[in-house]
Amino acid sequence: MLGSYLLFYLQFFEECIVRLKIAKESLQIEFEAITRLFKCFDHTFETILEVLHANTGRLIVTGVGKSGLIAQKIVATLNSTGTAAQFMHAGDASHGD
What we know:
Blueprint: H1 2-38, H2 43-54, E1 59-63, H3 66-80, E2 85-89, H4 90-95
Parallel strand pairs: 1-2
């Protein structure tokens, strides 16, 4: 009886160690991605922010398919944070209707 409890706890701790290892690996991947992202913040990014901040009209965000869905979410976020934004499907934009 005692042996089965010990076996249970041993297996439980082994699973915890595996999960902890996976969590650390995931965090390492995220850390490396964020580190690469910081290198992208150059004068171009700053210029984009300045243009967006100076904008007095609506910001039009466009996309097709998956990028269109992401664009709609970006529009929702912009509108909820005080930046007037509108989604326009790229197909509709090219037709001019």
